[in-house]
Specification:
- The chain is of the alpha/beta class.
- The protein contains eleven helices and ten strands.
- The strands form two sheets. It has a six-stranded mixed β-sheet with strand order 1-2-3-5-7-10, with helices on both faces.
Length: about 260
């Protein structure tokens, strides 16, 4: 299958496996959407989104399928992916993109939809080349890229369609960490364990505060932050975390 979901403990994994370049069409994106729902329904606390390919994270949308389809069918794929990406943002789980190869167009947009991006060091490319096809990045690229790295740099990348390196992505803050490819599996899993074993209620509240807060005024964002803080103060996890700090021990969060 082009997309699979597996889970070990509290860590889920969504794997893209559609050779040669992990390109996607409506069928593949529908499978990805199902995998997202499976991860949420299974109660995964951290979800790694990765690739089975050694060269590609994902080359994005299948251009040949765009040519074969009409506007309505092409837009169905766009809407399916956008809806899946919105559910990722709204989920309590932390979604982590492990970029191990070329991430272009919709492939980069898929990574942008994750909460955190970790990338292998290497000589591959990232970018949003849609403008060179007479299109724009329609899976959230114009919105998420500008929010993550700033309007000025994002505008230049979007308008030129030029590619950039993983090192550039790390320097700009698009990627949280660059890792040695030979240690990638262990490093990414260890990274995911932080969230799987951590304060899941607080993580979910942070996601909501960031994603919803950036869409409203500062005053409304601060009000939301206050509401979420009040809810957390009433939780068992906050009680445990505060006591563990004072008692100089590791907290044991239960997610309630």
């Amino acid at each position: 299958m082009p997309v699979t979901f597996t889970q070990h403990g509290h860590i889920g994994r969504i794997t893209l496996d559609n050779p040669p370049a992990n390109s996607y069409d409506l069928q593949v994106m529908t499978e990805f959407s199902v995998a997202v729902d499976d991860a949420i329904d299974a109660g995964a606390r951290a979800v790694i989104v990765g690739s089975a390919s050694e060269k590609f994270f994902s080359a994005g949308a299948d251009i040949k399928k765009f040519l074969e389809g009409d506007v309505q069918s092409n837009m169905e794929m766009i809407r399916t992916s956008q809806a899946a990406f919105r559910r990722m943002a709204a989920a309590d789980a932390v979604f982590i993109a492990h970029i191990n190869g070329h991430a272009l167009g919709g492939g980069l947009e898929l990574a942008l939809a994750c909460d955190i991006r970790i990338a292998n060091a290497g000589r591959y490319k990232l970018g949003t080349p849609e403008v060179t096809l007479g299109l724009l990045p329609g899976n959230g690229g114009t919105q998420r890229l500008s929010r993550l790295i700033g309007r000025s740099r994002a505008m230049e990348l979007l308008l030129t369609g030029r590619t950039f390196s993983p090192e550039d992505a790390h320097a700009w803050g698009l990627v949280a960490e660059l890792i040695d490819p030979e240690e990638a599996d262990d490093r990414v899993r260890a990274y995911a364990l932080r969230f799987a074993n951590g304060a899941t209620l607080a993580a979910a509240a942070i996601k909501r505060a960031v994603y919803e807060g950036t869409d409203v005024s500062l005053a409304d964002g601060l009000a939301l932050e206050g509401e979420l803080m009040e809810e957390l103060f009433q939780s068992q996890d906050a009680h445990e975390g505060l006591h563990a700090f004072v008692e100089k021990r590791d907290p044991e969060f239960v997610g309630s």
